[in-house]
Amino acid sequence: MPLPLQGLSAVVTGAGRGLGRAEALELARLGAAVVVNDYGQPGRDGSGEASTAPAERVAEEIRAAGGRAVAHTGDVSDFEAARGLVALATDTYGKLDVLVNNAGILRDRMVFSMSEDEWDSVIRVHLKGHFNTTHFASAHWRERSKASGGPVYGRVVNTSSEAFLAGSAGQPNYAAAKGGIVGLTTSTALALRKYGVTANAICPRARTRMTEDVFAGFGEPAHGELDPLAPEHVAPLVGYLASPAASRITGQLLVVHGGMVAVVDRPRVAAQFDSAKETFSYEELDGVLGPYYADRAPDETFAATEVLSLKRA
């Protein structure tokens, strides 16, 4: 039986460690030829000297297992580097079929303490980085579709976060970038569906270099047990979304962690108030919104609730 991704090629950004590495290995296991992208800076805040080692190491790991892989060590937040990344895939494998955007950094600070650079750098790597690669990949698919006169194979899997859904007090830059990625994903899904391309976003919960502080209180699993927060729990969903089996799934946001996948619905109207006149006055707004919120304590974020339940288990 052929593998699900046999004959397809994929780019995975931020694939030198953690989630990106697990995703690249899973795509290769499913038969894809992979371009492993990682800028290779040692600090999770994007600091330190860039290195080719992380990307090369994962590419070699794939080749040692019998797969096909090449390394790319450019910074995806650089427009030209992203162009080169997509070009490497098309030059090496003849085409690009799957794009998994995972690269990112953290520079945490409360909004009143955050510097302009701390804001800009996180938005640049996460949101602009997602845009850059998507721009060149989508142009590639559009040209292929025009040349063939019909739909082509294309999959985009973007990485958002529950920080955007739930809010994250010390991460206004990260939460904003991750929210922007969801907007980019749904827009991309609409723009590319006529070419046969799907685009989806995931909110993964995993213990990685970037989340070591967030999950510090959860402890390591017992000997012989797989960590419920291991990146390997996330990778199969990415592999599935990249496959032909997921052709009808597009414009979706999915939360994933150990043994759980949740489809996040679009925001719904919780309550509606209509003025008897053409427009509301201040007094009328106070009359309807005041009572509505009077007995409503700020809700606990569902992300925090889920994390606690995971800890209790």
TrEMBL record:
Domain of life: Bacteria
Alphabetized SMART domains for the sequence: PKS_KR (SM00822)
Segments traversing the membrane: none
GO MF: oxidoreductase activity
Keyword list, A-Z: Oxidoreductase
Start and end residues of each Ketoreductase domain: 8-234
InterPro entries given in the database record: KR_dom (IPR057326), NAD(P)-bd_dom_sf (IPR036291), Peroxisomal_Beta-Oxidation (IPR051687), Sc_DH/Rdtase_CS (IPR020904), SDR_fam (IPR002347)
UniProt keyword Repeat, yes or no: no
UniProt KW Oxidoreductase keyword: yes
Pfam families: adh_short
Family: Belongs to the short-chain dehydrogenases/reductases (SDR) family.
Annotated protein name in UniProt: 3-oxoacyl-[acyl-carrier protein] reductase
